[in-house]
Amino acid sequence: MLFDVGSNNGAWVAAYLRAHPDAAALLLEPNLRFEAELRLIEARYDAVHVRAAAWIADGNATFHFSRNDESSSLIAGTMQCDNVT
Q: Are 84 and 65 in contact (CB under 8 A)?
């Protein structure tokens, strides 16, 4: 079982699953922006997408989505961000 924590748009895990057809994957990605892409991966491969972030405790935190997805973070920065709790 492959755990892809922070799947983003799923491009990496899709390539991995294509190359390893017997593999299964659990995708963790909280960003709604990638919901459609990750659902397609679920439908095509042995994969399950959970819209959640990996964390060390239960609770809520503000996640700052950046226009540059690699910059999305729990830490507010100087970039233009949309905040989602």
A: yes
